[in-house]
Design goal:
mainly alpha; 19 helices; about 0% strand
């Protein structure tokens, strides 16, 4: 177990660093776009243009394939039977490529009709721009499908570095290719950048894929046991993802009908900020723990499985709960420091910070959900997460329709957050019923300490930011950034001291992870 944990921590460190760099570059990308174009119908069209290509990718490859693909391929690799794994990979690859080409063709033909369903509140000029940007981005879907399959193979073989680098190059491609083409094509230049970024991601994965010893077979063997098993696992996930994306589309549909221009962009920008701790920490821990959870489940080592799941969950909460409180306290300074320049106005800052306040409520829920879903997939149970997901997403849609009347676009963010917390609680409840234990004593003890330390940290962050503003002012971008950085570092230091004094295991894990990375550097 100790050796396994060391490997998991190493993988977590790699993914966490890459996720951090990727998210920072994603922020730079958004700053460039919002500075050039503001938060208006241009950026609303750009953000809405991701909808159909992303829906096509996530339904066929993104969440559905990876959740079923990794357990099946990992099983063959664990049994040293790579040859059969390559037959399964080849069949899946061939099927996905055919389906993607058919889907892209249909999407290209019916783009106008699909976009009108998604954003009926747009005027004709905005709709036309969204349609043209969407058609450019369909090329991204094809390369992202290839990337998704390759990443599934690499993660199954416990290779995390190249996929992590690929996510970084994706954002670099969007920024530099987008800036280059924006000189002639305006906002469409960044759609071209999205395509270029996905190609760069694909190219960096190929050498690592070759090192796995993979073999390609031009076949579609639907009778192969591995293929049959994979499709049995994948069908429930497809249903769940369909509901999840239906919810996202409903949210976008409602936001497009609000009287204020730029609300889709405000929601997208605020959600990106709230996704920082989810993507950097929650997802990194979930992805790195997944192969080991799968291995323990395959060997029927229930005790080790629960211990690892508990450790992952406690570590996620230890990092993301103070992150959520810190972001909530610094919501306006963060948005102001990140985006308020060029065509991004004070009103845009206020609209984005307002939505961000509601999104922070769900950060812990969605971070934990990333690991909890995979804990079910590791036991080859894809039905339970779907049933729970459909239930909570239905609640999300109902809450969105109600809360938007009282809180405008903030109501959509609040509905999203409440659904995430409900999802986490329901998943934990099922695990408790199924295994009879979830290491509840340690989880509750850790959560109590984390909550108390996070509240004290939040108070310190608030007064640090207020003191800085009163003493030095926030008129310049340098002062705005300094306010956020100093308040954040102060809060992080206080939180780490408090949790260390509380003798929390999670604090030791994070400290060891940081020390290992610093020594290596």
């Amino acid at each position: 177990m100790q050796e396994s944990n060391q490997g998991i921590l190493k993988a977590t460190g790699i993914i966490m660093i890459a996720m951090f760099v990727s998210r920072i570059l994603g922020y730079v990308r958004d700053v460039v776009i919002y500075t050039m174009f503001g938060q208006n119908y241009y950026t609303d069209a750009y953000n809405a243009a991701f909808s159909v290509p992303d829906l096509l990718y996530y339904l066929l490859v993104g969440g559905a394939l990876s959740s079923a693909f990794i357990p099946v391929i990992s099983g063959y690799i664990a049994k040293d039977n790579k040859e059969e794994a390559w037959h399964v990979v080849s069949t899946v690859f061939n099927i996905i490529i055919i389906m993607m080409l058919l889907g892209i063709t249909a999407g290209f033909i019916f783009t106008e009709e699909l976009i009108y369903l998604l954003v009926p509140g747009f005027n004709q000029e905005s709709l036309a721009l969204t349609v043209s940007l969407t058609r450019i981005m369909f090329a991204q879907s094809f390369f992202m499908a290839l990337n998704g399959i390759i990443q599934g193979v690499l993660h199954s073989d416990k290779h995390f570095l190249s996929p992590a680098i690929g996510s970084v190059l994706y954002n670099i491609g969007i920024i530099f290719i987008g800036l280059f083409f924006a000189q002639w094509f305006g906002i469409a230049g960044f759609s071209i950048g999205v395509v270029g970024g996905s190609i760069l991601n694909f190219l960096v994965l190929l050498p690592a894929l070759k090192r796995t010893g993979i073999r390609y077979y031009p076949e579609i063997n639907l009778r192969h046991p591995g293929v049959i098993k994979l499709f049995k696992l994948i069908i429930p996930v497809l249903v769940g993802l369909s509901v999840t994306h239906l919810n996202l589309l409903v949210t976008q549909n409602l936001a497009s009908q609000l009287p204020q221009e730029g609300m889709i962009s405000a929601l997208r920008a605020s959600q990106r900020i709230s996704m920082l701790p989810i993507g950097i920490f929650g997802l990194a821990i979930a992805v790195s723990f997944f192969p080991s959870l799968t291995s323990f489940a395959a060997k029927n080592e229930r005790g080790e499985y629960i211990k690892l799941l508990s450790l992952g969950l406690r570590t996620i909460v230890y990092i993301t709960l103070p992150s959520a409180i810190g972001i909530a306290v610094l919501k306006t300074p963060i948005v102001r420091a990140m985006f308020q320049q060029g065509n991004f106005t004070i009103a845009n800052t206020e609209a984005t910070a307002y939505a961000l306040m509601f999104y922070t409520i769900g950060i812990v829920g969605y971070s934990a959900q990333a690991l909890l879903y995979r804990s079910f997939y590791a036991t080859e149970d894809t039905k339970t997460p779907v049933i729970i997901g459909v239930t909570t997403m239905t609640i999300n849609i109902i809450l969105s329709l109600i809360l938007i009347r009282y809180y405008d676009h903030g109501g959509l963010a609040l509905a999203h957050s409440v659904a995430g917390l409900l999802n986490m609680v329901m998943l934990l409840g099922v695990i408790k019923l199924r295994f009879g234990l979830i290491d509840g004593k340690n989880i509750l003890k850790s959560f109590t300490k984390t909550s108390l330390c996070s509240i004290i940290m939040g108070i310190s962050v608030y007064y640090t930011a207020l003191l800085f503003e009163n003493q030095f002012g926030i008129l310049t971008k340098q002062m705005q950034i300094s306010q956020v950085v100093i308040a954040t570092l102060t809060g992080a230091l206080i939180y780490f001291i408090l949790t260390s004094l509380a003798n929390m295991e999670e604090a030791r894990i994070v400290r060891n992870l940081i020390q290992r990375k610093l020594k290596r550097t």
